[in-house]
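All the exercises in this workshop are built on plain-text protein records. A record pairs a protein's sequence with a compact description of its fold. Read left to right, the backbone structure tokens trace the chain's path through space. Once this layout is familiar, the rest of the handout is easier to follow. Here is such a record, shown just as it appears in the course material:
>
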Amino acid sequence: MTPCHAVEILLTRPADPGELRYARSSRLAVNADRTRLMAVQRAPSPGAALHLLRRRLDTHLPLDVLNTHYPDRHWQVLLNVALGRATGRALRRDAAARGQRPGDVLRQHVTIALAREEQRRARQLKKRLTPLLTDHTPEEVLAGAAALLHERQDHRPLAAP
């Protein structure tokens, strides 16, 4: 029996009504802002699932990135990204200059970009927390954050249909 793979689909823009009808008729779950979809795809491997979905949906939806929803045994997710011709050429040129495969170079670029974004967000959070520490103790800030998170968890809105 062919295994099933959960795939998250990110769109370049919100899906329009016609695209939504196609998505729903294709048994894709759509999020509230219509920019992300979930699918279950039968395929021999996660990579094949991404490839099959991209081929099936590419002409019907404004696809950006497809990724496996659950990490593999190495805690990694697979990405399926359609690159423009110029970007693809630049990536292949960069890979050849490094003596590496294009996929490995892309992985390095994505990893670096994600690390930068994580550092940027950490700096932003620290900058926002610093003024709080002039009027409150660290314990009060921590207790306030915990209370806020607990309150948000108890009052989560229901998922959109």
About this structure: The radius of gyration is 21 Å.
